[in-house]
Design brief:
mainly alpha, globular, 13 helices, Tetracycline Repressor, domain 2, single chain, 78% helix, 296 residues
Length: 296
């Protein structure tokens, strides 16, 4: 049996990787799953699917670790993050870097089972994961870098499934970036007052009193982009129903953030998990119906 001290340390690592809060993993995973199903025109290769699901988990965990390493002197001043393991001294910066390296090595081991194009693309993915946490110090648009880091799984998914990255892949990645602008601005609205005091930049601070309008504009652009992607991919009526539901979810999120109450803004952020799941359900249903309609 492990000693109590080791259990406490393991718990700190668990929280540092944010395994107790899977929302980030899910937001990263949904566009990847959209891409895999569209690239395969149905159920993707099971080995590819397993690698990407496990890789999503390990890279999201790595991203959380390097994010908390970058923010280790900031998190203690923000109400929502002051209890994080690095901010509390439960994990040392050196331990965090070792854990980050191990998680990236696990991801690398997974991607090495893929084709050469996917391996080459993975280097960009790691670079984006490392760069993003530091962007909030230099730009009011760190959400774009988050979107790029999360969306990079899309061209990698197409590369793994088809050994190519067509224009449709970049269109889905662009949708993933727009989606990140929506949900991460909502997330940044939760911390706006604390971030402004300590000099951390975000779209919520940049947009100011127009934040809800900008989020609404991104939501409209996202829906238009998803509709165009559906037309290009030949997705049918089930996908159309999914986008109709997503329109309702976007309206609901707007009602939550209008008062700019941090609790409601966080609820709007969390609601995006349903948004991604609904889009995925529409895609899966289309290909499932297509498969049942095929003779034999």
């Amino acid at each position: 049996m492990p000693s109590p001290a080791w259990r406490v340390r393991a718990g700190a690592y668990f929280r540092l990787m944010r395994l107790h809060r899977p929302i980030g993993t899910l937001l990263l995973m949904w566009p990847m799953l959209w891409a895999l199903w569209v690239a395969a025109a149905g159920v993707p290769d099971l080995h590819v699917l397993a690698v990407f699901v496990l890789g999503t988990l390990s890279m999201r965990s790595a991203g959380c670790v390097i994010n908390d390493f970058a923010d280790r002197n900031i998190d203690g001043h923000v109400a929502r993050t002051r209890d994080r393991p690095l901010a509390q001294g439960e994990v040392s910066p050196r331990e965090a870097l070792v854990l980050f390296t191990v998680l990236v090595a696990i991801s690398a081991g997974l991607v090495l089972t893929m084709n050469r194009l996917t391996i080459y693309l993975s280097f960009v993915g790691v670079a984006l994961a490392v760069i993003y946490p530091f962007m909030k110090r230099y730009t009011y648009l760190p959400q774009i870098f988050l979107g790029a880091a999360f969306g990079w799984a899309v061209p990698m998914a197409f590369a793994a499934e088809t050994d190519s990255v067509p224009e449709l892949a970049w269109a889905i990645m662009a949708a993933a970036v727009l989606w990140a602008m929506v949900y991460d601005t909502q997330y940044a609205m939760v911390d706006r007052e604390d971030d402004a005091k300590i000099g951390v930049k975000s779209t919520a601070i940049l947009f100011g009193d127009n934040d809800c309008d900008f989020v609404g504009a991104f939501q409209i652009l996202l829906l238009v982009g998803l509709a165009l992607i559906g037309r290009e991919a030949g997705l049918g009526w089930t996908y159309g129903i999914a986008l109709a539901v997503c329109t309702g979810l976007a309206v609901y999120q707007q009602t939550l953030i209008r008062e700019r109450d941090p609790v409601k803004c966080f609820r709007a952020f969390m609601n995006n998990n349903w948004y991604g799941a609904v889009v995925f359900a529409g895609i899966v249903a289309h290909y499932a119906l297509l498969a049942t309609a095929e003779p034999g």
